[in-house]
């Protein structure tokens, strides 16, 4: 039942539901990856089925593509869409400038390509993802499998030369085998605790041979919709410099929520 959901799940749900209201008929929509983004896809699916909303979705992972099709959203590729009106995605951390760490779900490469090809990137997150300084969440770096141990060592040396706190790195695993991204790459997680200069680190990492992309999203996100476990949502808009507050009643009144949880 709905009442059994944790406050974090409720927070994710209200953030997703509020962001779904930003999607209009005819839009090409980037669909993020992760548990919060999955709520968004379900909300949009309901709007397509029940309200006749007409959108085309560009998923950022095979997981999201499957879910989007399942709930009735028309799926197209980024190359078919070329440019998107909006991308809505989750995040692992966001700071006061709306810079992000993403890639906890391993989809950072497609997520960054899709978000960058959008008029607007909206992040949906529970309030626990808000940080003063990025870095407590391990920073994912996507690397090609060829020579990954050499790339890992190079990253460690660079972290030392940049005087970054906490220089441990680990290859992400999927059970006994290295985790594989949708593009057939591996992920090295950087355990840094605190990233002093995220902009510089993002640039340095991407210059290394073997590195495909890193999970720092700098100056990409426009709006964060922050969800709280009691149903409140806040919209933080970096361009307008505003914070809007709203409240959604998710337990009694939302059919999607109760249907899914029953
Ligand atoms: O970047 C991501 C996937 O690559 C996700 O957006 C991020 O990990 C947040 O996930 P969740 O919504 O499940 O907390």
UniProtKB/TrEMBL annotation:
The gene is rpiA. The lineage of its organism: Bacteria, Pseudomonadati, Pseudomonadota, Alphaproteobacteria, Rhodobacterales. Its EC number is 5.3.1.6. This is Ribose-5-phosphate isomerase A. It is an enzyme of class 5 (isomerase). Substrate binds at residues 33-36, 89-92, 102-105, 129. InterPro entries: NagB/RpiA_transferase-like, Ribose5P_isomerase_typA_subgr, Ribose5P_isomerase_type_A. It catalyses: aldehydo-D-ribose 5-phosphate = D-ribulose 5-phosphate. GO terms for molecular function: ribose-5-phosphate isomerase activity. The active site is at 111 (proton acceptor). It comes from Aquicoccus porphyridii. Belongs to the ribose 5-phosphate isomerase family. Catalyzes the reversible conversion of ribose-5-phosphate to ribulose 5-phosphate. Keywords: Isomerase. CDD domains: RPI_A (cd01398). Pathway: Carbohydrate degradation; pentose phosphate pathway; D-ribose 5-phosphate from D-ribulose 5-phosphate (non-oxidative stage): step 1/1. It comes from the Bacteria. GO terms for cellular component: cytosol. Homodimer. GO terms for biological process: D-ribose metabolic process; pentose-phosphate shunt, non-oxidative branch. HAMAP family: Rib_5P_isom_A.
